[in-house]
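Let's practice the habit of predicting before peeking. Look at the sequence and jot down your guess about where helices and strands might fall. Then scroll down.
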Amino acid sequence: MTGAPARADAPSSARLHVAVCTDGVFPHAMGGMQRHSRLLVEHLARTGRVELTVLHPHAPGIFHGLPHVREVALPPIDTQRLYLRELWRYSKQTAAALRQVEPDVILSQGFSVWADVDRFKDKLVFHPHGLEMFQGLTRKERAMGWPFRLLVRHLARRARFTISLGGKLTGILHAIGSRGVAVIPNAVEVPGAPSAGTPPPGPVRFLFVGRFAFNKGIDVLMKVAQRLADTQVPALFQLAGDGPLLQQYKATGLPANVELLGRVDDDLLFRLYAESDCFVLPTRFEGMPTVVLEAMARACPVVVSDVGATADQVVDGTTGLLLPPGDEEALYQGLLRFCRMDPAQRRAMGLAGHAWARERFDWPQVAQEFLSLFGQVRK
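Done guessing? Here is the structure:
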């Protein structure tokens, strides 16, 4: 993993002691929050300005070789048992470890710090990430999210700061009575120069990366792909990922312009970004999707729904297009507009996205924002 060169270490007495509490670290645990935990620790350590204690459920050694990083292993969550009960048990283990560690600042990734929260509240930064439990569309999704909404309110009203990824998520946190809200976006490692890769000649290549699930708008994307095929618009849709709807589409058949790639590793994914004309994510609800940032970092224009914090990611019309969620006609018109652009226009949009990602979402920049927030907590 790359990043800015490490700064000279601050004197030991000047370094903040930060405890990062997480229920998993990539690649030992998969998911956006787990990847965020790993990269945040790595980039904070490189600043030389913090002492880090990372509480996680894996064997120590994940961060071997990084300066001023200590690891504390906790018993993991048992995914075969009731999830909320396991979260509570894990948070009790976290609380016991924190009483021993006595950090200046505590960062809770998700619900890792729950038990005994009143003991820690004045030094606690709570990061709930995408707030999907407040964005469910169906009655079933809202019912399943109810206990988690209560838990977010409980923690956000106590923590010194709750982190918003931006956009509409900030309003949600203010509405539930959060004690303090700090806006810090997700981040990616942005290459210093835009990708030199160019889409091959032929149809306009659209890339989707994500779960094959209702909330990702995969059904809307399939309908739009079929409409473009029916009207003989030269477009190719490459879909990477897995999920509950994948077998359904395999069984019922795909539009002729859709190609399924399955799960892809990072090397192939980054090449796909560079070789695609456009990244498209018609999601119905989201936090701040990292895949959109990854596409922009590799100079790939984006078309994404205006949900969660995506309005902070995409400068509409400059780096990509923002569309209403779940709107088939809007997505059709947006992709048709994109197909009618000449390659120079699409390239200009991609370069603008790379510049915006470099300015706002590069990991060294975002790590500095965390450091600034931690400094406010310590005061």
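How did you do? The chain is about 40% helix and 15% strand.
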